[in-house]
């Protein structure tokens, strides 16, 4: 009979995920993974597989959490238009700039590995398609609420909003100052979405 695991798998996965997020895939060593997880090589690989499989698990964990946060944020806003503007501008809402410089793990990983790793590329496609669907549902809600023109294509607008948001994430990683990034985010939101009325 196999012994039950004596560690919190989710906690270990989050620690490993943060390591990959901070240093990237190639620069993360087995020693780094052992250090942040508190596990030996045998335990780590027995639970999660090799470094590549562990990375894919961490990436899926990240995207699952991100989609959960996005779904809740879009659904919880009393007005869909405000939720859409918040989505675009949220990536610039970082007073210290630390989170902005860290970027998005999925985007970082796609930039690093997308050309060489078909599994990462497939995960990126799934991630962005799911994001587009969630945003598109919010666009459709904004149409029902009368804030977005009825003839707008929800999927096309969702893709444009996602592209704008990801562009801001990328610019934030370059070290753009927070004031400039926030002004750029407002400009993008104003160009892509109607200006909210004060009624």
Short description:
The protein is built from ten helices and no strands.
Describe this structure in words.
- This protein is mainly α and 199 residues long.
- Helices cover 72% and strands 0% of the residues.
- The chain has ten helices and no strands.
- It has helices at 9-23, 30-37, 41-48, 51-76, 80-90, 98-102, 105-113, 118-144, 154-173, 178-192.
- Helix 1 (9-23) crosses helix 4 (51-76), helix 5 runs parallel beside helix 9 (154-173) and helix 8 packs across helix 9 (154-173).
- The longest helix is centred in the middle third of the chain and has 27 residues, at 118-144.
- The N and C termini lie far apart (66 Å).
- The model has no long low-confidence stretch (mean pLDDT 91).
Question: How does the SSE layout of this entry go?
Answer:
Elements: H1 9-23, H2 30-37, H3 41-48, H4 51-76, H5 80-90, H6 98-102, H7 105-113, H8 118-144, H9 154-173, H10 178-192
Helix pairs in contact: 1-2, 1-4, 4-5, 4-8, 5-8, 5-9, 5-10, 7-8, 8-9, 9-10
